[in-house]
Design a protein that fits this description.
Elements (H helix, E strand, L loop, with lengths): L14 H15 L6 E2 L11 H15 L14 H12 L10 E4 L2 H7 L9 E6 L4 H8 L3 E6 L18 E5 L11 H14 L2 E5 L25 E6 L1 H4 L7 E4 L8 H13 L5 H8 L4 H28 L3 E3 L5 E5 L6 H12 L1 E2 L1 E2 L10 E5 L4 H15 L2
Parallel strand pairs: 1-11, 3-4, 3-5, 5-6, 6-7
Antiparallel strand pairs: 2-8, 7-8, 9-10, 10-13, 12-13
Helix pairs in contact: 2-9, 3-9, 10-12
The protein binds pyridoxal-5'-phosphate (PLP).
Pyridoxal-5'-phosphate (PLP) binds next to helix 4.
């Protein structure tokens, strides 16, 4: 027996365990401290009534002989494909139902998609980044090249024609930086990928936070994207499905003349047995008129938090990205502090917890992530504490 030795090449991630340890130690030493956590990337609001009703109805379906569902198609039910085709139309994108694959969330598919690509490919990944892209490639022994996302390029690096890459990761709006590409930026990536015969793995998990009409929700809004991009998206942040689990992946028929679509179908039908009928029914309810209205109310709740935090940083003159079309605010630590130094400073002096940027890559040092997924009152309270502490 031989193990996959590439697992030894993975960097240990101490980010969230170190945060937890530091907060626990501080709480133990200061039992009366009222700590506000703005570090989490998870949603906190419940599923909306339209989704809950659909879930209940689907449970009832499973209770009756006539409406019971056993195994479904691995790639998802037609009703959810149709609903997603309609959703993409609202962004001016035309898809065929057979280009959409329903998943149990974006994370699984972002990792699993690598099954259909050779291990000799060179992978281009921005730094800082959502760690899943790097780790899934390291596990398979692929060569990873990093592109620098920095304050100078607004954390939105553009392609460098002198760098050869086969697989390119783009996340927009980005986790952790909150930065989002406009059409011109994405067009540059699409042209680069088409010229290099590369594939873009486009993570649109936060597209529902986009408010600015100039920012594309889907990479397929860009001409030429269907010949070079696979898009991953999710109900997690859009509709609070982080614990319910549903997402989707689009593999256009125009990619390699349908070859990649066929390969992904084959991969899914071989290794995956589909998302539960009940969950897919809940997901489809997001696209009804009532469901859309309700999920936008919840998104509005988080967006209000983002606005409060953005206004706070504005008033303090602190540089940041995100906050407007994203639930994340990525700020430059004041007074030249490092990420962890600022973490300790905030914890000890304001009892506010965020996420040190250094945990997302070398370019993250000196930066700090706050999230808008918290409770509204607590976010307001945190904003007041930040103002008091940092305006000194
Ligand atoms: N992509 C990004 C950029 C994320 O931040 C996350 C979750 O935080 C995911 C994907 C995973 O989403 P899902 O819950 O659909 O697996």
């Amino acid at each position: 027996m031989q193990i996959n030795k590439h697992y030894d090449d993975l960097e240990q991630s101490y980010l969230f365990s170190t945060i937890a340890r530091k907060v626990n130690e501080y709480s133990a030493a200061h039992p009366d401290a009222d700590i506000i956590r703005l570090g989490i990337g998870d949603v906190t609001r419940p599923l909306v009534p339209a989704v809950i009703d659909a879930l209940h109805a689907a449970v009832e379906d499973q209770a009756k002989q006539e409406t019971f569902h056993g195994y479904g198609d691995e790639q998802g039910y037609g009703f959810l494909h149709e609903a997603l085709v309609g959703y993409y139309k609202t962004h001016g994108v035309t898809l065929d139902t057979n280009e959409i694959f329903i998943s149990d969330g974006a994370k699984s598919d972002l990792g699993n998609i690598l099954d259909i690509f050779g291990t000799d490919n060179t992978v281009l990944i921005p730094d800082p980044v959502y760690p899943v892209y790097v780790d899934t490639n390291v596990m398979a022994g692929r060569k990873v090249v990093f592109m620098d996302a920095t304050a100078e390029n607004g954390f939105l690096p553009l392609p460098d024609a002198s760098i050869k890459a086969d697989i390119i990761y783009i996340c927009s709006p980005n986790n952790p930086t909150g930065a989002a590409y406009d059409r011109a930026g994405l067009k540059a990536w699409v042209d680069y990928a088409n010229a290099q015969n590369a594939v873009i793995l486009y993570d649109a998990a936060y597209e529902c936070f986009i408010e600015d009409e100039n920012l594309p929700h889907s990479i397929y809004e860009i001409e030429g994207a269907k010949t070079c991009a696979i898009e991953f998206c999710s109900f997690s942040k859009m509709a609070g499905f982080t614990g319910t689990r549903c997402g989707w992946t689009v593999v256009p028929q125009a990619l390699l003349d349908g070859k990649l679509n066929k390969m992904w179908l084959r991969r899914q039908t071989t290794k995956f047995n589909g998302v539960p009928y009940i969950v897919q029914k809940g997901a489809a309810a997001c696209f009804t008129e009532e469901g859309m209205k309700q999920i936008h109310e919840t998104l509005g709740y988080y967006k209000q938090n983002a606005k409060v935090l953005a206004e706070t940083l504005d008033s303090l003159g602190i540089w940041y990205t995100g906050g407007k079309s994203s639930p994340y605010l990525w700020l430059k630590c004041p007074n030249g502090m490092g990420s962890w130094e600022f973490f300790d400073y905030l914890l000890e002096n304001a009892n506010v917890v965020g996420t040190p940027g250094a945990g997302f890559g070398k370019n993250g040092d000196g930066f700090f992530r706050l999230t808008a997924f918290g409770d509204q009152q607590r976010t307001l309270e945190a904003a007041e504490r930040l103002k008091k502490l940092l305006s000194k």
